[in-house]
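Interim report, section 4.2 (structural modelling).
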Amino acid sequence: VGFAGLLVGFGTTLGSGCTSGHGVCGLSRLSPRSLIATLIFMGSGILTVAAVRMSGILP
Amino acid sequence: MKKNLAAGTVGFLFALGLGISGMTDPQKVLSFLDIFGKWDLSLAFVMIGAILVHLPLYRVIRRQRSLRLCSEWHIPENSKITPSLMMGAMIFGMGWGLAGYCPGPGITSVATLDSRPLVFVAAMILGMSLFKVLDRKIGFKR
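Predicted structure of the assembly:
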């Protein structure tokens, strides 16, 4: 969790937004920046979960 | 005072919504991201629901001529898609997929006083500070 927190803190400041900021507020404003950001963090989240699963930690 | 009251009320509502919808349950969030495993798509409706509320409301709000709490609008104006934006979103997604917490639900879960959200939020603040330090040295183009 500690390492994940570091990534989330660093990533959201570098990418200027999170699930609520880009995903909800940004998409509602029809911001292209937020659409790209949302697609990327969803994609990288999905890939991360898949990678953790393949490494055998998740059942 | 009025501004703080508004911020407090909105924060309360936000936390309530995150809690009720299941966004504060890391296991549920991880199942939402687990599209190659036991995919639980229900959290997508939280985002869809929130957008369905905010999309029309935002348009109505923007039509107001006089503002009640501030003298001017505070709206993100940057519309350029930069490498920083994409890198940041990618790093954030990795952390999100590892812990099952994103910033809002993470901070909300501090109220449970469980060690996981506490460690997560502490590390998140550290990550944000780390970025600020690096940014001062390098100067990322946001």
